[in-house]
Amino acid sequence: MVKKWFVLLCVVFCVGSASAQVTWNMRAGIGMGHAYWFDSPWLTSKIGIGIEKPLARSWSFMPSLEVAYNHYRFWRYSKLSGNGWNAEGEIGYAVNWFDIQVPILAAYRMNLSNKWNLLLKAGPYITYAFLVSKPSEDVFNYFDLEGTFGLDFGIDFERKHWVFGLEYHFGFLEFDYGADVGFGALYATVGFKF
Question: How far apart are CA 184 and CA 103, in angstroms?
């Protein structure tokens, strides 16, 4: 189901980019991701391209295509035995994966001064994930990443061709951890408009 929506949103992005009166942009960001049932956040970074198509005087349609890299490291208690002794210890594990993200946002632009604009944006997004590495133990098979969807909220400050922003991805489904676990990610971003 998620895969079908992912393909559909990719088509929307391609169709939108083929229409007239669009401007292109590139954006990169770094941030922290978190899942609501896990103890610690993880590092995430992303890069992407997007378009902006004006809809009205202050409103725009902003689809984009992004690739995010996620590195999650966690610790687990494990009982070690050998030579007649037992000890409790912690073992560290890491999971790495890529997300291909397609946000479809509506944006409202406000003029702050002669040099700065403020952009408020929100809309749905869908993600398809690809594992790079995960622990081999069977107990960790709950890292079954495929796809998720959610809402994207952001605020941008524009100065000429440069864009500085904050974004939050509120995901609904991601990990299979005996139940579907939602996750979120907060990014600080910088971009350039062509």
Answer: 14
